[in-house]
Design brief:
Length: 642
RNA sequence: GCGCCCGUAGCUCAGCUGGAUAGAGCGUGAGCCUCCGGAGCUCAAGGUCACAGGUUCGAAUCCUGUCGGGCGCACCA
């Protein structure tokens, strides 16, 4: 809502500046720090001062005298501070427009397809153990991005990559085949939670290797069978991966996170995706067979000489190992090519009925949606893999796909470690007050389902403490909604470049900047409107009537709330463009804080003056729309009561 | 050695492409429920924005360097 207005104003001022001073200047439109200074600020005179060699204030005065801002929403223009041109909006008209105007472009965007499809890959948990809170950060950020892009009108396909032929699965297979021999049928019959069972087994296998490194031979043997897809170990691998993936999907579904397609590494191998990429890479001279040195017998991608890879100790990256197997990067280059529709090969697809999701297969169904063929690809992967993602891009570029390389985005975020206190609670010795890194291999970490369970339990306690008596099913549902809000907001509120030292007590806190705080503000505002309606003082808010309300009725704090609500499209746009998704969470928090700070002073039900009541209802309605929209993006449910 | 990220209140973090008086939450101290829901609100205390230079009318923000801390630079992913 504010966005188009800002653009319109900037364009108009640019024309005025051009006509008056003969200078091309693209004016910035800012939000002043205090509303008393104005609703929009144009620092153009400050920027022009240098070029024109005049005082900013003087330029501002001249422009203010001559320029007339466009549209009906600007009520006043003033010169402020060092030379700002500040605009004041018509509060009633502006607020009235926000009662029914689309807050985000998504719904109205008819031409969504024209910008092309974006493939977003996230979650990507190795299917050999339970998901932990590190994986949660990935999935929550990925899902938030997907929701933002869709709200902005983009067409998005969500993929979750399943590495079902990697070392991690191999280790659990070794656990079931060698360390603690268990038949296929018995593994199939193991009770849930199967992912918890494997979590422990995986850690035991790690220790078992350490006792006798010769046992690593079993891993190699298993890995080979997994890659070939034949033999008892491959069968075991398929079973483990399938059962674990089912658990991961369930965990994510608890949080409202879903996928369009599960891509399996085993199918990339079985369909020889890499062979196609390999031929192209060799033909282009991007791969070289080493005959001597430490990489003898390997096909490597030379990275020397490129600016991006300057200063590397080893300027070559192994793509095909000397035993003929393919490294992760090699497979990923082929996969990335497929995502862009540049491989010239496709998967088979099968609908996994039990989970309600499409999965790749070797042959698959006749009828299936079209997957891949994206214009842009976003891979949500933690920052530690930046180097590998750079190599994938370099691979695309080496094949001449510069455009695709440019449109390959690595959405990097920092990892989640454990706070000293939480590490201690898990029985892990933290080193002199420093955060403790999680380790699937060592079985150190907070499992995602454990966290959600704890949050639901805490929510039930909080509800009980408020003496709310609810039927059992409603209680469970409400606790679930509160838990989702807590965990999703917790992961979304921190900037992506920051390592999260996960602290359980902090995550379990429902006060302050938390998901439940947002929910509560939303619930309260809706309760007010409900009670007003029940008292017969409600009725549909008419934008025309609201637009004609006298200016004096708008107290500054009410107006601030509306002003902040009007910025959500700009915030979401910026969040998606910069991949700093915490902006969405922060904005939701800001709105909730503003509302909480003022609603005491602005009663609706008990207000005698009809005009005041009307203005407050308008402001609160705009607020509820905006916070509701942000909560949707954040995946935070809005309970009717709590 | 090279690369990326971080350093802002006791703690956890915001601070948008340089701009107006550096802000929240937690914690601490003091208050606020005859009044639409207290998962809330108000007030107070708390800051050499790691350090040093530089650019600029103006720097927490941009540049260079230094010092701390984290993470990468595998025939693991």
């Amino acid at each position: 809502m504010l966005g188009p207005l800002k653009r319109q104003i900037a364009a108009s001022l640019a024309r005025e500046i051009h006509d008056r001073f003969g200078v091309d200047h693209d004016p910035v439109v800012e939000i002043p720090p205090r509303r008393s200074l104005g609703d929009l600020a144009l620092p153009a005179p400050l920027h022009l001062a240098r070029v024109l060699k005049r005082r900013p204030r003087e330029i501002a005065e001249e422009l203010a005298a001559a320029w007339r801002p466009p549209g009906e929403l600007v009520a006043e223009l003033r010169v402020e501070g060092a030379g700002y041109l500040n605009l004041f909006l018509d509060r009633s008209r502006f607020a009235a427009a926000l009662l029914d105007a689309p807050l985000l472009p998504g719904a109205q965007e008819e031409s969504a397809g024209e910008a092309g499809k974006i493939v977003v890959e996230h979650t990507n948990i190795n299917p050999n153990k339970a998901a932990h809170i590190g994986h949660l950060r990935n999935a929550i950020l990925g899902d938030l991005l997907v929701r933002c892009l869709r709200a902005l009108g983009r067409r998005v396909e969500v993929q979750n990559y399943i590495d079902d032929t990697g070392v991690q699965v191999a280790d659990v297979v070794v656990g079931f085949c060698d360390l603690e021999p268990t038949s296929l049928a018995d593994v199939k019959a193991l009770p849930e939670p199967f992912d918890y069972t494997c979590w422990d087994l995986y850690a035991r296998v790690g220790r078992w290797y350490e006792e006798d490194p010769a046992r690593l031979e079993l891993r190699r043997k298993t890995l080979h069978q997994l890659e070939r897809g034949e033999g008892e170990r491959a069968e075991m691998g398929r079973l483990v991966a399938q059962r674990i993936v089912a658990r991961h999907l369930r965990t994510m579904a608890r949080l409202g996170i879903g996928y369009d397609l599960l891509t399996h590494e085993s199918h990339i191998l079985a369909l020889h995706f890499f062979a196609v990429a390999y031929e192209q890479l060799v033909a282009r001279g991007a791969l070289r067979l080493e005959s001597e040195g430490k990489n003898a017998g390997c096909w490597v991608m030379p990275l020397e000489g490129t600016e991006e890879f300057a200063g590397l100790e080893d300027p070559d990256k192994v793509i095909v190992r000397s035993d003929g197997t393919i490294t992760y990067v090699g497979k990923d280059i082929a996969y990335q090519l497929w995502k862009f529709g540049l491989l010239g090969k496709d998967f088979g697809y099968r609908y996994w009925m039990d989970q309600g999701v499409w999965v790749t297969d070797v042959e698959g169904a006749e009828d299936h949606p079209s997957f891949g063929g994206a214009r842009e690809v976003v891979n949500v992967i933690d920052a530690r893999q930046s180097y590998l993602q750079k190599i994938v891009r370099a691979g695309l570029a080496a094949l001449g796909h510069d455009e695709a390389a440019r449109r390959s985005v690595h959405f990097a975020y920092e990892m989640v470690s454990l706070s000293p206190a939480t590490a201690r609670q898990l029985g892990v010795a933290s080193e002199d007050g420093k955060a403790q890194e999680m380790s699937g291999r060592k079985g150190i970490g907070v499992k995602a389902d454990d966290l959600i369970d704890r949050l639901e339990e805490k929510a039930r306690e909080e509800i009980a403490a408020r003496n709310r008596e609810l039927p059992r099913a409603e209680l469970a549902e409400l606790a679930r909604e509160i838990a989702i809000a807590a965990v999703r907001f917790f992961m979304a509120k921190t900037g992506t470049t920051r390592v999260i030292a996960f602290d359980l007590d902090e995550a379990l806190d429902f006060e302050g900047d938390s998901g439940p705080y947002l929910q509560y503000a939303l619930v309260r505002s809706r309760a007010i409107e409900r009670k007003v309606a029940a008292a017969g003082k409600g009725g549909t808010l008419d934008p025309r009537a609201a637009g004609a309300l006298p200016r004096e009725l708008w107290d500054d704090d009410l107006w601030d709330l509306v002003h902040a609500a009007a910025q959500i499209a700009d915030t979401v746009d910026k969040a998606a463009a910069t991949l700093e998704l915490s902006l969405v969470a922060r904005h939701a928090l800001e709105l909730a804080q503003r509302f909480n700070a003022l609603y005491h002073h602005h009663p609706v039900l008990h207000e005698e003056d009809a005009g005041k009541r009307h203005v407050r209802r308008v402001a609160f309605a705009v607020f509820a729309r905006a916070l509701g929209a942000l909560a949707d993006l954040l995946g935070i449910p809005a309970p009717a009561r709590m």
